[in-house]
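Hi R.,

Here's the chain you asked about this morning:
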Amino acid sequence: MDTDSDSKAEGNSILVAYFSLAGEQYGVGVIEEGNTAVIAKMIAEQTGADVFEIEAVNAYPETYDGLLDVSRQEMSDNARPEIAGMVDNMEDYDIVFVGYPNWWSDMPMIVYNFLESYDFSDKTVIPFCTHGGSGLSGAESTIADITGAEMMDGFDIAGEAAQNQRDKAGEAVTEWLREGGFIE
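And the predicted structure, written out as tokens:
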């Protein structure tokens, strides 16, 4: 990480919080590391951020069809799946990157639970997502409404690119972080 005085990373405590699943995924087959996890780790490595993985108490299905069924039901019920663990020191972070896979043109319901579980009012929140073609789907305004945080432009990338074109994905992450002032 560059520590130039113009970098937003300098003097700020940064967290990358993300939700990601391995298993059978759209467009990439069966994977051992989730698409969003790949991008989250790139962001953390380049910014020197701490990392928190948003994990469900009750595991999600590892088959694509099973995951579709569960995600549809959660959305229909406006569910808030229980999160295993908490960020113990959220008050210490100035900047929080929030990552997730785009499900049904929205964030997974567990990410809503995460966002509703903390006070983000004095923080800057930056969303990022992996998707099969839907991009951020308006999540930036949804996150702003939930958190009341200062927002910065989000980042989206196809899950297939995150998984199978990691050099290209890494270049895109680097450019986005440069544009945001996090690195030189």
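The radius of gyration is 16 Å.

Let me know if you need anything else.
M.
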